[in-house]
Amino acid sequence: MDSRKIKESLANNTLKKALGTFGDSYVKERKEVYSDVDFEKLRRDIQRAKDQVVENPDCYISQFIENAEKSGAKVFVAESQDEVFNYLKELITENGVHRIVKSKSMATEELHLNDVLEQFGVDEVVETDLGEWILQLKKDKPSHMVLPSIHLTRSDVADVLNQQLPYTVKDDVNDIVSVARKELRKKFINADMGINGANVLIAESGSYVLFTNEGNGRLTANLPPVQVVIAGIEKLIPRFTDLLPIITALPKSATAQKMISYVTVVSGPLPLQNGTKNLHYILLAGERRKILEDQRFKSVFYCLRCASCLNVCPVFQQVGGHVYGGHTYTGPIGTILTYLLSGLDEAKDIHNFCASCLRCKEVCPAGINIPDLILLIREEVVEKNKSAVLDLLVDGFLKKDTRFNSFMKLGAYAGKVVSPGGNFPLFLTRKFAGQKYIPSISTKPLSDRYIQSSIKKISNNRVLFFPGCLVEYIFPEIGEKIIKFLEKCSYQPILLHEYGCCGGPAHHTGKKNAFIEIARSNFSKIKAIDPDFIVTPCPTCAEVIKKRYGEVLPEAKDYLYQRTFDYCQFVFETGFQNIEPKFDCIATYHDPCHLRRGLGVIDEPRQIIKKLGYQLVEMDEYDACCGMAGAFSLKLPNISEQIMKKKLSKAEKTCAKHLITACPGCLLQLRGGAKALGNDIDVKHLAELVE
Length: 691
What we know:
Layout: H1 3-11, H2 13-33, H3 39-55, H4 57-70, E1 74-78, H5 81-94, E2 99-102, H6 106-111, H7 113-119, E3 124-127, H8 130-138, H9 154-164, H10 173-190, E4 193-196, E5 200-202, E6 207-212, H11 216-222, E7 226-232, E8 236-237, H12 243-255, E9 262-266, E10 271-272, E11 275-276, E12 278-284, H13 286-293, H14 308-312, H15 316-319, H16 331-342, H17 344-347, H18 359-363, H19 370-384, H20 388-398, H21 401-418, E13 423-424, H22 426-433, E14 438-439, H23 446-450, E15 462-465, H24 468-473, H25 476-488, E16 492-494, H26 504-508, H27 512-529, E17 533-536, H28 539-552, H29 557-563, E18 564-566, H30 567-574, E19 586-589, H31 593-598, H32 603-611, E20 615-616, H33 631-635, H34 637-652, E21 658-661, H35 664-677, E22 682-685, H36 686-689
Parallel strand pairs: 1-12, 2-3, 2-4, 4-7, 5-8, 7-12, 15-16, 15-17, 17-18, 19-20, 19-21, 21-22
Antiparallel strand pairs: 5-6, 6-9, 10-11, 13-14
């Protein structure tokens, strides 16, 4: 990762404002435009159509070719980039092409087509999408799949036009658009060839479909005498009726519009004054076939290139696509496409930008599990690029309970020397953890505190309390309160005899083999106890034990899924009546990512907060990541810090006395950040407030 580029992006207030403003408004507007749509049904409909092509691509490629050629088009299936370039070179030569206009196409960006066309002797290649045209004049590259110039302000655009064109262009949208229209219309009229991408290819009719807001795609298709469509075979759908869910989803997901401005369906060559155009399809197939052969990644074929995953990504909102991206594709889905189309070397750094907040998975209209696919890439990177530090931490300590506990106790006593006030000094932690205070490790972890009371027999309802590393070692007082409340609710709390990490850090850093060993060890201990329930105050631990263990240990799947509960869900379902109201002030709540999106626990903590007597005031973006994300905050502390500041700023605007969360990791991030920034809001784990 290029730390210099990261720092430059974080210091770019224009970029941050543009991405942050769009991201915040997008979330609200997307919610509104989807309010009357059954989103899950829409996803299923898109997947159903795409599945047919995924399972039998050659059938639908052949069907498309047959129907397109019946209507007068020519179709060329390219198995490599060289075949694309050779076909185009021959086409350009045969038709005496000197001037080409293009509408926005990620497929042509992927091919770096403009540079290649210039090598063929073409005099001029002009992008006609307004954003792409500005970037072409600026000699810049897109930072977003749908909004390519989102990183530029209106003033930046005016400056580019003033430098490149013989006009005086005002810092005014109408003036900019007027100049663009005047310049680009000449290009359309004089062009010898038009090159379009395609949002959809319909096998049933041999048609292609364009979605645009500017109408440039229609002009590119209509005016030049030679028309070329370049698209990957993943754009295929079987029938016209399969187009409806995509028309419904794409504008809503891409830009939070109810409808796109122009939907253009072209079936066969368009008419000319003295005949018809030459229509040529170039279908990109080679690398796409390899994707389909990999069972792990074939769901990527569902992708609509809507970029909704970029729009909601907290990291993308901080650094943009020029940092979080490969040469062509950016953001979460861009990480996967870069890996699949350009190889591991180009993706080996950008996977680190994923904070695994699961928000991209939540909004993807095609239902692609983007975080898990990025994790597969991370596992391969870790396997092929050994890290001595990661190996030492995971294999040397996390896998070995006794060694891990000894290491943490040693750290506790060392911490007494450098953190007599209970927090490590900021100058020690700022570089690797961002601007937040880090509390020292307790010299008496939860397991040692509870060892005597655990002998006491209370009930036959046995609850294995799994505290998680932060509650075990950093916040043991939270664990004590949970244990007392469980006893109050007539449960028998039990702790593991020798505490061991749940394996979440190993899982999320791509150390798959180590994670399997940890899962197997912990499951063996759990089975030996055979509790009625497993309860943890850490959503990551809950998700890992409840779901992830079962993915690597089939014998554990049903056993753990049925017994494992996050603390909030368990208290709401079994101890809600024992919660006593004791607060009378405003509180706001931060949804931990893995609690809300990983476990689907959303309303339960809010009901508990209200039962405690609080007036709950929701902050904007209550479900956005706080920037902790475990190892992410250590790998990219500067980005983590900026995400945290944004979250605290939104919480402060509610005028709440307490910012409540239900995750010890979020607590560490937000409490430490609030203290370091001098923010008066008091950050609490929900379990601290329930007695």
